[in-house]
Amino acid sequence: MTEQLIMLALILIKLVLVFAVVLSMAAYLVLAERKLLARMQLRYGPNRAGPGGMIQPLADVIKLLTKEDFIPATADRGLFLLAPGLSALTALLTFAVIPFGPTLELFGQKLPMVVCDLNIGLLYFLALSSLAGYGLALGGWASNSKYSLLGSIRGLSQLISYELAMGLSVVPVVMMAKSFSLTDIVMAQAQIPFALLNPPAFLIFLISIFAESKRTPFDLPEAENELVAGFHTEYSGMRFGLFFVGEYINMVILSSMLTVLFLGGWHGPWLPGIAWFMIKVLAICFLFIWVRGSLPRLRYDQLMNFGWKVLMPLALLNVLITGACLLGMG
Amino acid sequence: MMATLTFYLAGVIAVIATLLAITRSNPVHAVIYLVNSFFALALLFYLLGAPLLAAWELIIYAGAIMVLFLFIIMMLKLSPSSAEKGLMATSGQWVPVVLLAVALAGCTMLLTGLDSLTARGIPRWHATPRDFGYSLFKEYALAVEIASFQLLFAAVGAFYVGRPDEPKDSRGGA
Amino acid sequence: MPLLRDIKGFFPPFWITLRNMFRKPVTVQYPEQKPELPERYRARLVLTRDPDGEERCVACHLCSGACPVDCISMQAAEADNGRRYAAWFRINFTRCIFCGLCTEACPTLAIQVTSDFELSGRDPLKLVYEKEDLLVDHCGKNVEYSFYRQTGIGVAAPRGGNPNESAPVDVKDLLP
């Protein structure tokens, strides 16, 4: 009985910790992005709130919470209120299946460092990432504004196009790891990460997650200088905040997925597993920010052509070649 | 106990959501209710021991097909304010719906009556992705291939419809 | 080959942004660190005095006529000695665009720009400056210049006593 209670307590602590870490990571990613982008453009970035601007995220939250929560008169009220929640929820839920460390021994209990080790973890991730489109689509449609609608249409077509390439690029991973479970996939990379074994799949997945996170160079759904703010033009206050937080959680999630699928997860020399996982995730987050500081936005036809005529065939070809190689090796 | 309760709850949600979906006049609302029902269905599949099918239900139906539906609705520029006017079926349009429902129910009853397996009750079974792939590409390979031919036809048709217009020779007559 | 060109063009931006990250930012940290303004910077307007300590402004309305946003208004008046002055003079700094056209129009060099740009406040009415707020106790940029010594002779200063001025010619006395 006490063992069960300890187990339950441990699971609860784990849940709360994961939740807190992901949310605070998302909040500080905003600050990190603003600071790093500023340095890339020879500015300082936010440095007023707290020492070096360290409590800027808190200030932002207070600002967002105290702003007026405006709902346009012609908006579809129910869906308008639902959309930001969906956007943040799908992003948060995904973290349930991501293993962030090796199994831990605590009080004689085996505690796996993953909230829920589904045997179809990878499919769960794909399902939730495709559902992320709903927040975007409903937000844009329910606002009943032309900018929002255009942002949603762009976002949806982009999500659909790049999801295919992303799905196909993880097929070789499943073939090599022989499992859909993310823990097994990490285990299969104990010696050598899949990024080195199958670089094309890694690159295709990397490009697709940039499109999936709706960030530069694929930030057409919210292209500021064309669509005001894209699909969340009409949102204000904390509803906008939810979209915003959802986007940054999504960034953390996608970085974690890249780490788990291609960079060997928590495996690495000398340091403990969780540290390695964090280092890899943060490095990819830095890459996200670096790319945003460096690359311009693609044109819409370039985006579609690249997705359907380059990435898709490459991903398919990669699946075939990987399959042939695996068959040849036995 | 918990699983049974969840099962029936999901079933009730699926039925109610589907009913709401087919009676909404606003197409976007209908899509949302349908997605809801897909979620409930996915949960049912998961509880019946088919996690792979549950994931696919979400990825393909909720994640791809219904998103495409939404996409089309948006392209038709049905704004929330203009979508109110009646897409609600008139009484005459209900007739084929009822006919289809009766036919479906009849077929299901007939099939379950014929199938001795169902009569005995399927043993509790857990379909791993491996089992699923095995039955899909080994046992029913031919059927899968035939079905995929249909997709090929559809793809060719889409290419044909979507081909760029031939440049018209406008100066020919003069 | 376009593909090769594209690939070649893909990497330089990354190098540039990475290099910038290790450079010193060029931002001026404003409240603590004041910016170095050019000498002829155009900001808050003032009304200057001539070397004798009198107001330079003769309320000719040329500045308010030149003002593209109509932020200057005044009321002309005349003193007992015939010298014109502004009974009241008002500049609405919430409207002023600091173009400096008023200073170019001013015949007496009374209205001048200063480099004090810190004009902000929560109450817009506090930015409507009256004559008392505008008038300063110095000559501004042109220390020597006094309108009445050059053009307004006879009005405020008696004839004949000014620098560079010879005694008035007696027109009745035309004998060589």
Short description:
Chain B has helices spanning 2-23, 27-47, 51-75, 91-114, 116-120, 129-139, 141-161.
Number of helices of chain C: 6
User: Which CATH C-level class of one domain in chain C is it?
Assistant: Alpha Beta
Number of strands of chain A: 2
- Our estimate of the beta-strand percent of chain C is 5-15%
Low-confidence stretches of chain C: none
Q: Helical percent range of chain A?
A: 55-70%
Question: If helices are DSSP runs of H or I spanning 4 or more residues, what is the number of helices of chain A?
Answer: 12
SS content category of chain A: mainly alpha
Nearest-angstrom radius of gyration of chain A? 20 Å
User: What is the distance, rounded to the nearest whole angstrom, between the alpha carbons of the first and last residues of chain A?
Assistant: 48 Å
Helix content of chain C: 10-25%
Low-confidence stretches of chain A: none
The largest pleated sheet of chain A is described as: 2 strands, antiparallel
State the strand order across the main sheet of chain A.
1-2
How much of the residues of chain A is beta strand, in percent?
A: under 5%
CATH-defined fold name of one domain in chain C: Alpha-Beta Plaits
